[in-house]
């Protein structure tokens, strides 16, 4: 029996998924919640095999949730459910450790098949999104150090805090941030962070720093 937990803010969607999985003889819905923190706990306590995680939860994004679930319940595969097709999202999901990335407009058969496959240890990726990723993927134009600085900035750190954490002077941090903004074609630091996240550069760099 495949034990499944769901995290989606929309109650009607959760109810629909619960009803769908209730018709599958080899699946059991063990919890349906509305936020990332709760699903992380549910995956661990309920010993879930698969967590269906909405791309946009109210308290945190699916990428952060994926990492949290994988840390709290290593046996649980995460299947991200998305309402949009944006290549950067796929890169970030894979980098975070998601086993699958499928669209919310998938057919019931496609979704249940995806659940079975990730439960078996396979990877499942929306074909159209994978093609878009192949066509549009861009390497990061930033150096590892620039990504370090931007990654800490993305956590909400001030220039002083970035300097302290990375053992740099404040002037050096400002220079790095200025170069980053120019390289990615942004107007502000916040816009540069958004561009880097959308392209999957920040998360991959953060994981390599923590390795």
TrEMBL record:
Source species, domain of life: Bacteria
Residues covered by the HTH luxR-type domain: 135-200
Assigned keywords, A-Z: DNA-binding, Phosphoprotein
Pfam annotation, one family: Response_reg
Modification 4-aspartylphosphate, positions: 54
Secretion signal span: none
Domain Response regulatory: 3-119
InterPro entries noted in UniProt: CheY-like_superfamily, NreC/VraR/RcsB-like_REC, Sig_transdc_resp-reg_C-effctor, Sig_transdc_resp-reg_receiver, Tscrpt_reg_LuxR_C, WalR-like
Listed PANTHER family: TRANSCRIPTIONAL REGULATORY PROTEIN DESR, TWO-COMPONENT RESPONSE REGULATOR
Protein name: Response regulator transcription factor
